[in-house]
Amino acid sequence: MNADGNVLGGSKSGGGGAYLPTEGWFLAVNGGYEAPLGEMRDIYKPAPTFGVTLMKKWNHLVISGTVDYRNNQPKQSSFPLDIDINGQTATGEVTYGNFSGIGIYAGVSYEALITPGASFYVGVNGGTIISKYDYAVSYEGIFAIADQAKVNITYIGPKLGLNFAINSRISLGAEARYSVSLSKADQDPSSDTVSKGFNSVAGNLVLRYGF
């Protein structure tokens, strides 16, 4: 118990070890790896993600706002594509450019101390990914198209993590996220149908600074 009678806050004097503050403002940077799921997994590779988060903590409750970035590369240079045109099957291919996106989202979580210097948390994020990718479709002897798709993907997803104090202001944590798209992310260029959005799973390291 410190001089203020705060057991959870740990010792702030007298040679005490690192501890996690129980309230205040925090700035965090994160880096990790994100893997697409669903139809997007068949086209794009997993890719690094980088982000910046501003947090406000009131004891167990943490509110956050995050901006992050990803740039997924296609798994191969082109993909075979068949389409029925007026009863005739045409054989061709579709080529995709990188899927890049800037995520902007808010989060809320519940964080509980394991020890004064370690904690775990569970929560949820919700927001949008402003994304784009190029594609080109060619059919043997029929036609060819090229365009750029720009899509805002609305999503929500749970998160959980562990956080460990380095000192009284800086901590390092590991976080897992699962994102579920609430909107459509990619359109099949050979038809008018729209396929499932950009679902993903990600793991991140989070460096947090309290001020």
Write the layout of secondary structure elements.
Layout: E1 23-36, H1 39-43, E2 47-58, E3 61-72, E4 79-85, E5 88-96, E6 99-115, E7 118-139, E8 144-165, E9 170-181, E10 200-210
Antiparallel strand pairs: 1-2, 1-10, 2-3, 3-6, 4-5, 5-7, 6-7, 7-8, 8-9, 9-10
Protein model, in words:
With 211 residues, the protein is mostly beta strands. The chain is 2% helix and 65% strand. It contains 1 helix and 10 strands. The chain has one helix spanning 39-43, and strands at residues 23-36, 47-58, 61-72, 79-85, 88-96, 99-115, 118-139, 144-165, 170-181, 200-210. An 8-stranded antiparallel beta barrel has the order 1-2-3-6-7-8-9-10. The protein is elongated and about 70 Å long. The two termini are 22 Å apart.
Report low-confidence residues grouped into runs of 5 or more. Answer: 1-15, 186-195
* Sheet of most strands: 8 strands, antiparallel, barrel
Q: What structural category do the secondary elements indicate?
A: mainly beta
C-alpha end-to-end distance: 22 Å
DSSP summary, beta strand count: 10
Quote the average pLDDT: 84
Strand content: over 45%
The radius of gyration is 22 Å
Task: Using the alpha-carbon principal axes, give the shape.
Answer: elongated
Strand order of the largest sheet: 1-2-3-6-7-8-9-10
Order of helices and strands: EHEEEEEEEEE
Supply the number of helical segments: 1
Relative helix content: under 10%
